[in-house]
Amino acid sequence: MGLFGSKREGSSDLPPLQFPELPKSVPSFEADDSFMGGDAGQIRSAVSMPSMNQQVSLGTEKPLFVKVEKYRDAVETLRKLKERLSDADVILGKLSHLREEEDRELAAWQSDLERIRTQLLDIDRKLFE
Predict the structure, then answer these.
(1) d(CA 36, CA 40)
(2) Which H or E run contains 87?
(3) pTM, whole model, 2 decimals?
């Protein structure tokens, strides 16, 4: 005796299995350029064009995949670089302004020294005449 009752031979509650007919040909799933819009095709060709300093193996074209995290890191790095470049520009402007002020001060001191020198020479000449 079985666990779930006795087996009845010859009686089946299920209808016989019927399989669907398989297609005679297999559809092709090749990339179709008309599927991609004009912009997508241009983007694909621009991305796949190698730059001058990259080595290219002849006859092989590989797609370019970038992880979102790496892209975000690159964007963040570019933002920081722009920020630091802007800071450097501000600092150089301040240094230039300070240099101009310093040059004006030095020129004023130079003129004061010349004025004092001429006065001393004038006094010396008057004393020893």
Answers:
(1) 6
(2) helix 68-127
(3) 0.41
- Annotate 28-56 with DSSP letters as a single string: P----TTTS-HHHHHHHHHHHSPPTTS--
Q: Enter the tokens of residue 18.
A: 């019927």
Residue with tokens 């031979």: 9
Nearest to 115 by CA among 43, 62, 123, 5: 123
**4, two tokens:** 């779930």
Render the burial of 93-121: b for 16+ CB within 10 Å, e for the rest: eeeeeeeeeeeeeeeeeeeeeeeeeeeee
- The closest of 73, 49, 51 to 61, measured between CA atoms, is 49
Q: Which residue has the tokens 């006094």?
A: 123
pLDDT digits (tens, 9 = 90+) for 67-93: 888 889 999 999 999 999 999 999 999
